Amino acid sequence: MGVRGLRESDLPEVANLHHRVTGESPWTPGLDAAYERWFSEVFFRDPRSATTEGVEPLVHTDERGVIDGFLGVSARRMRMGSRSYLAALSSQFVVAPEARSKLVAFQLLRSLLTGPQDLSIADGANEHSARLWRALGGVSSHLYGTHWIRALRPMSLGAAIGARRRRAVALARPLASPVTRALDEVLLRVPGPHRPAAPAGIRAEPLTPEAFIEHAPRFCERDALVPDHDVASLRWALSRATDLGRGAPLECSLVRAADGEPLGLYVATLPAGELATALHVAASERGQEPVVRYLVHRAFRRGSVSIGGRVHPPLMRALSTAFALFHARSTHMLIQARRPELIEAFDRGVATFSHLDGEWCIRFLPSDDVDPRAERGGDRPWRGRALRDRPPRDVASPRPTERAVRVLQPRST
Fold first, then answer.
1. Which residue of 15, 39, 156, 387 has the lowest C-beta tally within 10 Å?
2. In total, how many domains does the chain have?
3. How many CA atoms lie within 13 A of 158 on its CB side?
4. Hey, which residues does 74 pair with through a beta bridge?
5. What is the number of H-type helices and E-type strands within the chain?
6. Residue 68: which CATH number?
7. 229, 314: one domain
């Protein structure tokens, strides 16, 4: 009974627990296999975690040895100048409903935060998990919890967002698509800044993992804290991003000026008719506006209805110039560190932490061969797709969180 590290033999039980807490679709053999492949790939095959001792996913077992809580933990390497730091990224925080009065969530998170890492990060915590993090010494990073979006086809964007949030809209979207596309075509014929144009004198070339590692440092000169990528880990993250794109092109490009000077780089999924995602964008001071404008133009040319991503603070002015809007999501980004300079890097906006380093690349996405409708005999859209449409988040009950907060807070006199 208590907290221990996850073993590969635990995967069927943990997958069942995760689905029971977060899933909205019927359990099927195909979904079972998809869950186990995902847990194995993310928590045992990631090169960043495979070579790191002491930073591991955690489970809580009850008195019978049954797993009633899980906290996904992945290792990340960061550096600040010549100093190297170990970071732990938490995700997929789930507790069985029948165990939520036993402070299971508190025990799991406390075990994580007392680990050997220098920095702990939660990239998509819900409100209840965020309260528990703060009670244990974590702080919210409001700046890095901010996202941006640039509308490219406003009518189609509205339909796409509605389809993600409302089942009735999802059913009607195939009928409405011709109408929204036609309205967008009319809007885009009107001259103005809403129609993205490619910056003059800019060219791009394919970006390999080796080229990424070679050129990325020159675009992070002002950043005090940056990811310490290697070829194996970067190749793994890009492979995950490609799989999550469901056939949408993953575009990795190095952007150069007319004189050949590297201006910046980006990694983005650019699906036609859907929301494009900028996974990583970096640029020199000279290249900030050209790189952002080129990326927006590429998403427009690919037929995406919008493009967005996590805010990288040095690019905020360039994004604003490109008519991007900034917004906060319902989930929180939280950090906890033993060294004040690590917290300060996030507070000052001089840290680099993109979707390649966070939860985006390790979220759950059922494989194409899973069709839960087959056993239900219906054609209704699978409600479980919400697992891949909504941002990844921790799932913790309010009851243990509030109880833990009350225990840790001093009583007023």
1. 387
2. 2
3. 8
4. 89
5. 15, 15
6. 3.40.630.30
7. yes
Task: Give how far the C-alpha of residue 395 lies from the chain's centroid of Cα atoms, to the nearest Å.
Answer: 15
Q: What is the distance between the alpha carbons of residues 14 and 151, in angstroms, rounded to a whole number?
A: 39
Tokens of 42: 């993310």
- Across-strand partners of 262? 256
Question: What phi, psi does 284 have (nearest 5°)?
Answer: -75, 170
What does the alpha-carbon distance between residue 61 and residue 104 come to, in Å, rounded to a whole number? 9
Terminal Cα distance for the chain, rounded: 37
- Evaluate whether 348 touches 138 at the Cβ level (below 8 Å): no
Same domain? For 201 and 323 the reply is: yes
pTM confidence score: 0.83
392: domain range? 2-145+365-408
**Residues 390, 308 within the same domain:** no
Q: Which residues pair with 60 in a beta bridge?
A: 3, 69
**Integer Cα distance of 188 and 184 in angstroms:** 6
Rounded Cα gap, residues 104 and 49, in angstroms: 24
d(Cα 146, Cα 140) in Å, to the nearest integer? 11
What is the 3 state secondary structure string of 185-212? HHHHCCCCCCCCCCCCCCEEEECCHHHH
Residue/partner pairs of 98-102 with CB below 8 Å, 24 or more apart = 98/68, 99/60, 99/62, 99/68, 99/69, 100/397, 100/399, 100/400, 101/399, 101/400, 101/403, 102/62, 102/68, 102/400
Residue 104 belongs to some domain of the structure:
yes
- How far is the C-alpha of 158 from the C-alpha of 292, rounded, in Å? 23
Asked whether residue 400 falls in the same domain as residue 308, the answer is no
Consecutive 10-residue averages of pLDDT for the chain (413 residues):
92 90 68 86 87 86 94 94 93 90 91 95 91 94 95 81 57 60 73 81 95 92 84 94 84 96 96 93 95 96 93 95 92 93 94 93 68 33 32 45 43 41
Do 324 and 214 lie in one domain? The reply is yes
